[in-house]
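RETRY 2/3 - previous attempt timed out on the joint model. Re-submitting the same 796-residue input unchanged.
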Amino acid sequence: MKPTAALNQPSPEGGENNCLNSELWHACSGPLVSLPCIGSHVVYFPQGHSEQVAVSTNQEVDAQIPNHPTLPPQLICQLHNVTMHADIETDEVYAQLTLQPLSPQEQKEVSFLPADLGCSSRQPTNYFCKTLTASDTSTHGGFSVPRRAAEKVFPPLDFSLQPPAQELIARDLHNNEWKFRHIFRGQPKRHLLTTGWSVFVSAKRLVAGDSVLFIWNEKNQLFLGIRRANRPQTVMPSSVLSSDSMHLGLLAAAAHAAATNSRFTIFYNPRASPSEFVIPLAKYVKAVYHTRVSVGMRFRMLFETEESSVRRYMGTITGVSDMDSVRWPNSHWRSVKVGWDESTAGEKQQRVSLWEIEPLTTFPMYPSPFPLRLKRPWPPPTGFTSFAGMKSDDMALN
Amino acid sequence: MKPTAALNQPSPEGGENNCLNSELWHACSGPLVSLPCIGSHVVYFPQGHSEQVAVSTNQEVDAQIPNHPTLPPQLICQLHNVTMHADIETDEVYAQLTLQPLSPQEQKEVSFLPADLGCSSRQPTNYFCKTLTASDTSTHGGFSVPRRAAEKVFPPLDFSLQPPAQELIARDLHNNEWKFRHIFRGQPKRHLLTTGWSVFVSAKRLVAGDSVLFIWNEKNQLFLGIRRANRPQTVMPSSVLSSDSMHLGLLAAAAHAAATNSRFTIFYNPRASPSEFVIPLAKYVKAVYHTRVSVGMRFRMLFETEESSVRRYMGTITGVSDMDSVRWPNSHWRSVKVGWDESTAGEKQQRVSLWEIEPLTTFPMYPSPFPLRLKRPWPPPTGFTSFAGMKSDDMALN
DNA sequence: GTGTCGGCCGTCTGCCGACAA
DNA sequence: TTGTCGGCAGACGGCCGACAC
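RETRY 2/3 succeeded.
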């Protein structure tokens, strides 16, 4: 046990400072992922956190894990810090969030700024993302760059050269440099990355089906990132801590922080987590208190496509109920049971949360000069003390 | 989130059953590591478990982590199950232990069988372990087998062939087959592994300084394992759960199990953990209640050498006190402060536990027809309730 | 007894345009 | 427009004994 091997929590990458390229991080995490603003109010769901841990450890959540007696199904927190990171081994993007549960007094004084709905998570404009072919990853050749992509994001070639060629230098999430020979040749002419490409492929252990993306930012810097295909989870079950202990640990950390109004730290893995479990408070309030849903109602929901773009799937609400009425009664986490229109959507969640869906209503919910004050979608049973006793009638948008 | 990706806790390796080769596991874990017997009584130390988690996550234990109010510094448990495993990625050996804390009533009825001191952890006899040289791991050539090692553990060559050669098939901890061409050639003659060796080196990502070991068992089967050098921890800080949550989780799991007398699961990584934190009850009782230690006393302690053998280091006891008097008062974990004779021992622990050392006394402690009934090494303060209120005078060896 | 090297051959890497989808 | 292939040249992998420590 060498003392020098110890690292401090805030910077798991060690040598890397916190200036990790935000544009690149968001490009890698995908078009649907946004991070709440530092300083804003958010809602944290232990259930959702538990789901992420379950996926990451390849373990189902053991139904025998007791819930922490004092931990409500959601905590309203102030988001003190957000840092973006990438796994050293896999380049998987993740974020570290520092949360501080609000005291009951603070919850009453909370203000809902419209800006809290999310911020600064725009996808970069000058970028492209290509799914690698067998030829791209083979040792036999280089990388075939789609023509429009090359013209949009790579520096222009000097076509007086024969053949036109240049050296590209791109930096990844760890700020490592990668050099490629970019050449325009062949019959018909095409853009290719040759020398340097295979080193990159083997270093990142890319296989056909994985995606690579390039970004050309305003400062004329080139960045590149990777997005691995959803191949069957190779994430090993951790040999550090039992799955049960991990689930207990996240509950204990949140409960302790809530009891003492102190800060706690969580990791959010956008590519692995089934759903966001830290969402802006305003988004939660809008969805839970200002949206009327009922069985049979139609809705749509956004999903990411293979090509890193967005498409809507349609469905029908088939029920509204607790997902886990024993351990998490009165939780809004995945309280909506849904059916999907397309049969190919069979692998989609059968339960979603209110803030994930967009109900198709005949009357406009927003914008409205007066905040709508609707009842909770189903009647709260006695003893309902979540949301710190705040009743829906107390809620108002500033 | 595909349901098929879910695995059950007991077999993290998935396809691998629990018949993992015990001889090979122990050879890889080293000569000092022994696992308590299934069914026996053991003592579990949350502090030690926490140390292992700290090392595995490259994090110091945060002093602000609250201890669980009801969790004593050690739990007497029955060991219900032990399974040996190896990390899929790194081949690092680890064991999964299922523990059940004893009720106060059970603790009073506990019996101390001498056999509980440990069992069946003998090192294999027909084996060798070699630290890899630059030539061994270079792509330029094969593996040079020490002559005595080859003659002892490899099947004999047919020396009528010119040159004498054969194909060796060895299985690793995951039961994967590795084939090597074993040849006896050169001037002077030497044993070499050629074809197949470089595949193994690159697959296991071995570098110079790592060790490889071969075992020839009674059933004439050949096994091989690896032991990586203690290079600076490349174990990434987990992006799954914060270090704080992990420490809270292991405490919560143990506390919950103790409160309900139910089973809990822990992982023991012998190569990573600074010290064993699950030890046979008899070993604990002998060390804590039947050994007299005092400041100034000389002792010796076993350490593993680079060559996978054992050597003794000498030292002097410089103090006996709580390691963490705030969170873990009256714990025997690392209660002994020591100084080491050799200046090169500077990186050794400054604190050890009683059962790790062998005090040099002038009177024989064992064997003795009468159990010695000594006082605790330092007076227990008021409110000392660990070990379930069992006083030292209540202890006796059967 | 064994670690490293020069020599030598064979395989594979990797760049090229051809060709077709 | 771009995925895959055959052709080809050079780099590297990998087997050998020489030699030194």
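The CA atoms of residues 128 and 148 of chain B lie 9 Å apart. Closing ticket.
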